[in-house]
Write a structure and sequence with these properties.
By secondary structure, this protein is α+β, with helices and mostly antiparallel strands. The protein is about 45% helix and about 20% strand.
Amino acid sequence: MVLEDNVPYTDHDHLSKALIKTFLHEFTEAFFPQINQQLDFSTVKFLEQEVYTDLLVGKKRIIDILAEVKLKENDQLTLLHIEPQSTYQREFHERMFTYYSHLYLKHRIPIIPIAVFTYNNKADVPKSFTMEAPDKVSEFNYLQLHLIKLNWRAFIESDNPAAAALLSKMGYRDDERVQVKLEFLKMVSRIKLNEAKVELVIGFFESYLKLNEKEEKQLREEIANLPKDEAEGVLRLPNSFYERGRKEGREEERKLLAKRLLLKGMSIEDIADVTGFSRDEIEELENSRSSK
């Protein structure tokens, strides 16, 4: 992360940072399983933000996520450095090297450097930084997670909250947006999280994949066609589409949705939450359906 003096700083790296810090174990489990298996997460310690000045370019740089963990094999203290990056920078590999050099100079323990690219540009960034003078004198390597290059379908069977949130930044076509949101909601409904963490995961996802009115209508129809247990799980979530559906949905569309949910045997309370109808109105719809 780069800070410039007198410039308001609000960007998407903060969202990624909050998500990864909250679900550090789950993040590494989903995207770096070999590293995850070697680390002991029982005593994770997040260190204060490291700030240093890049004198050559005259900017302050902040190292985003720095966690002190132990290796399972020998209790060796190790730094896990994760750098979310929301904009493409061709020389990013050099910046990762300067971060690594700064950290090693200060801490003198092993460092695992990871870059998380959340931008939509598929252009490659070198995974290593090499210095030659004139022969090769050093080579620095770091790990990359380039989300736009990942197939979102590869993660939908997992119950991993980090993977669920990051579906919104993976590679999908415009005509898959509704399906991505549906699978995301199904994932979150299966995961046992407290309310604050559910809000974090949903908030992150919807910051990047926000459906339009037509897509929300299609999503409501897709949910209505889910098996009863799945539909009930999804509809218990605090979803934005759900609120807009109540406020903006047309009367006939809402009635049709309510009738479909009644056919599935969903409770009147849940149907009221989804459609915005009162209990009496839903019972009236049920009676009119039964009398036919």
